[in-house]
Amino acid sequence: MIFNVTTEEANVLIAGLAELPFKVTAGLIAKLQQQAAPQLAEEAAANEAAQVQTAEPANAEPAQTQGE
C-alpha cells in the first residue's frame, strides 16, 4: 500500500505512534522516518531553489537617484 499524507499529517501519525509502547512502534517509526528523509531533502532543495530565483543578486548595485 502507498499512502499520501502531508508533512503535518505524518508528524501526527508519528506522535500517535510514540504514545504506544516503544517496543511495538520503534521499527515502524524508524521506517517512516527513513522513507521521509529523502522526500524532505528534496522538498527543502526545491524551496531553496525557489528562494534563490526570487532573491536579488548579492552583487547588485543600488539604483541611482536622479540627483546623484
Could you please describe the fold and organization of this structure?
By secondary structure, the chain is mostly helical. It has 2 helices and no strands. The protein has a domain at 7-51. Helix content is 66%, strand content 0%.
Task: Offer a concise description of the structure.
The protein is mainly alpha-helical and 68 residues long. The chain has 2 helices and no strands.
Describe the SSE topology.
Blueprint: H1 7-18, H2 22-54
Q: Could you describe the largest sheet, including whether it forms a barrel?
A: none
The portion of residues forming beta strands comes to under 5%
- What's the SSE pattern? HH
Overall helicity: 55-70%
* Class by alpha and beta content: mainly alpha
| SS summary, helix count | 2
| Overall average pLDDT | 86
Rg measurement, Å:
22 Å
Record field, number of beta strands: 0
The stretches of 5 or more residues where confidence is low (pLDDT under 50) are none
Q: What spatial form do the alpha-carbon principal axes imply? A: rod-shaped
CA distance, first residue to last residue: 67 Å
